Amino acid sequence: MNVNDSEKMRHILENKGFVYGTEEKDADIIIINSCAVREKPQDKIFSYAGRMSREKIIIVAGCVAQSEKEKILKRNPNIDYIVGTHQYYYIDEIVEEIVSRRRSGVKAGFTRKWQESVPDIASRTSLVSGYISIMEGCNNFCSYCIVPFTRGREKHRPFDKIMEEARYLKSKGYKEIILLGQNVNNWEDLEKNMKFPALLDEMANEIDVKWIRFITSYPGYYDDDLIRIMATHPKIARNIHFPAQSGSTRILKKMNRIYSRSQYLDIIKKFKKNVPGISFSSDFIVGYPGETDYDFKLTLSLLEQVEYENIFSFIYSPRKHTKAFKMDDNIKMEVKKDRLYKVQELQESIQLKNNRACIGHTLEVLVTGRNPRKKDEMIGRTESYRVVNFPSKTPVGDFTFVKIDHVGPHSLRGSEVIP
Ligand code: SAH
Ligand code: SF4
């Protein structure tokens, strides 16, 4: 989502004649698009901005800008301007104001309605995978999460605008579309009486790309129609990011997630039964206030039961504004670190086992880039999002087939098979 927001800002500025700089040292203006989900990345902004020369114009945008506002300017006089999550549509006006008057300021008000940014976004980082924002904000208020406070209440983008952007991406040769939002499966267009599965259905019917993906789905808003639509359209990639956060129902309740472990597992079971070849990835938080050894064991056993393709795991980080911030953060850092290590170790062994099962098989791969460390090698992704390295001259954006001969927990390697 942050990448997508940065692309939007870049596009707005390029339209006004600014030139995107790839070298930090040559830039006159630096925009830091910040993430506030955990404390560490937030702190990095200050050390980064502190290292910048005073000559440069420094703007902090994104979630930290939204939640900290003027405090950022007080803490670091090097920073010129604060632009909140609902204000970057005016980034050109803001930059012009700073350039002409060289004064600092804060723009961080919330807006209630969906704001359309320029639909023909040309300044995209990837020429293969096209992101489309379908919603903004979140109403779930999970007890640990700052997102509802930094991105505001949920706003859904109208169906016609989403389709307009999808047609544009198709016309530019994009091979996969990735629908973005904090709870994409809660998306709806009230005027058209459409819910998320209907959006996927229409998009898969009309837009001729290879894969349609969506991220993130909230397990609490699960719907039978989603399974039905996925089973109908092979174009909808058979891989869902489905963050569980914990394997313990007791902790899930404390987190204000509205599903239990068994409800979560039932949904996974239904998907696996009706959509052959489907796989899942997830996010997990360890060391949440009150998490016992037993709760943590339930997280490990969930990993074993679901056999995720991939997970992102985090040590709980107390965030101001949230409900959990007031809870007693009672677990020692060494215990948290040990739990994180155990989750990652178990997941690696699961990934290694699943990757080993690919040896000798030929997989279809979308070429997404060149291996920066080995010039004659390309990198690609499978439908389930596994990384594949292979010697090749096939251009980025093409599909190819790779016979797998070596694997590690995080990637596969093989040789290209030209049919
Ligand atoms: N909307 C998505 C998640 C967005 S934030 C969802 O509900 O799944 C991305 C991930 O950051 C979360 O899934 C969670 O695992 C992690 N996260 C959020 N707040 C956190 C916190 N305070 N400490 C540690 N991890 C956190
Ligand atoms: Fe945060 Fe929960 Fe909303 Fe995800 S669903 S963004 S974790 S409040």
Describe the protein's architecture and organization.
With 419 residues, this protein is α/β, with parallel strands linked by helices. The protein has 3 domains: 2-107, Rossmann fold (3-Layer(aba) Sandwich), CATH 3.40.50.12160; 121-356, pyruvate-formate lyase- activating enzyme (Alpha-Beta Horseshoe); 362-417, OB fold (Dihydrolipoamide Acetyltransferase, E2P) (Beta Barrel). It is built from 13 helices and 19 strands. The chain has helices at residues 2-15, 39-51, 63-68, 70-75, 91-101, 147-151, 159-171, 196-206, 224-232, 249-254, 261-274, 293-306, 333-356; strands at 29-34, 57-62, 81-83, 105-107, 129-133, 135-136, 155-156, 176-180, 188-189, 194-195, 211-215, 239-241, 279-286, 310-315, 362-370, 377-381, 387-391, 399-407, 411-416. It has a 5-stranded mixed beta barrel with strand order 15-16-17-19-18. It has a 4-stranded parallel sheet with strand order 1-2-3-4, with helices on both faces. α8 (196-206) packs parallel to α9 (224-232) and α12 (293-306) packs parallel to α13 (333-356). The longest helix has 24 residues, at 333-356. The mean pLDDT is 93. Iron/sulfur cluster binds next to α6.
